[in-house]
Every structure is written in C-alpha cells, then in structure tokens.
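Why should sequence recovery work at all? Because a backbone constrains its sequence more than one might expect. Tight turns favour small or flexible residues, buried strands favour hydrophobic ones, and helices have their own preferences. The token representation captures these environments compactly. In the example below, the structure is given first.
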C-alpha cells in the first residue's frame, strides 16, 4: 500500500532491505566514493584500517621517544634477531649495512667536535677536496708505500748476521744451532 505524505500526494512505497549474504556488506546506494571508502577489507573498512595504522604508529613512536637507552638497545637487538630469523643471510647483510651507516654517521658527528682549530680546518679542507685531489693523494701514498716496500726487500736481501752474543755462551750456542736447523729444514722443504 502506498502512503501519502503531508501534501496528500502518494509517496513511494518503502523498500525492504535485502538480507545480508553470509557476512558480506555491500552498500545499497551512494556514490562511487562512498562505495570505495566502505569497501570491506579484513573485517574493517579502508578508512578504519588507515586510522588504526595511524594510531598504532603514534603509539610506537610515543613508546620509542619515552624509552630508556636500555629499552632501545633491547628493541634493536630484538629487531635484529627477528630480521635474521626471517631473512637469514640477507638479514645479516642488511643488519651489517644499517649498522655501518649508523656507525659512520656517529663517527662523523664525533669528528666534528674538535676543540683544536687546526683539526677543524684540516677536516673542513678534506671534506671540500675535489676528486682529482683525492686521486693525487692516493697515488702519492701508493708510490710512498712502494718505496718503503722496496727498501724493506733490499734490507732483507742483504746478508744479515744473526748474533746471539748478548746471551750466555751455552744459550748462544743453542739458539745458533736451532736457527741453522730451522733454515736448513726450510730450504729442504722449499726445494722439495
């Protein structure tokens, strides 16, 4: 039966709502935006999940900002262990990379706190170095290390006389005999 409104005109009959089918919730009418915002995802709408995620993030950040150093250390260890258990070797690589970045940043920050003005000027100069200056310094260092190696090899090639004259006569004779025996055995081993 049709009902009449206040003006006496016939109003549309009310529609009965269809029964929900096994827990699925579908909007009956509305715009596409309304339908998209109320789409069911895992027991809640997308807006509900977004709000819950923001709330969870807020609680986590609040906890971390008020935590003591010991608690933060325990959280880092737990996160590292979890990463290692889930990702295995890749997790260890990731832990190493993150740890290296953190340590590098810490050392950089500590290095900037020099009280000596010369050290500050030297650090600032090194930071502003151009790529060619770095290459030049590396090449100079390599040449210097080669010169040192050559002088060390030349010193080893010279016939050094091992002297145990600072020891007592019996100790000196025993050490000389031991040294000669070790050298002879080594020569036999090398020559085959």
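From this structural description, the recovered sequence reads:
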């Amino acid at each position: 039966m049709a009902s009449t409104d206040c003006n006496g005109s016939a109003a549309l009959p009310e529609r009965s709502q269809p029964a929900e089918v096994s827990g699925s919730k579908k909007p009956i009418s509305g715009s596409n935006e309304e339908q998209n915002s109320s789409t069911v995802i895992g027991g809640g709408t997308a807006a509900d999940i977004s709000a819950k995620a923001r709330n969870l993030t807020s609680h986590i950040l609040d906890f971390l900002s008020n935590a003591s150093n010991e608690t933060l250390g325990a959280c880092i260890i737990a996160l590292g262990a979890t990463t290692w258990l889930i990702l295995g070797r890749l997790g260890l690589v990731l832990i190493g990379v993150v740890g290296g970045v953190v340590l590098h940043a810490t050392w950089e920050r500590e290095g900037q706190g020099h009280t000596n003005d010369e050290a500050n000027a030297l650090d600032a100069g090194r930071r502003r170095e151009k790529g060619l200056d770095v290459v030049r310094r590396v090449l100079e260092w390599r040449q210097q290390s080669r010169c040192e190696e050559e002088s060390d090899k030349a010193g080893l090639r010279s016939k050094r006389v091992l002297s145990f004259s600072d020891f007592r006569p019996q100790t000196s004779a025993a050490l000389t005999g031991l040294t000669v025996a070790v050298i002879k055995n080594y020569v036999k081993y090398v020559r085959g």
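A few observations help interpret the result. Residues 130-158 form one domain.
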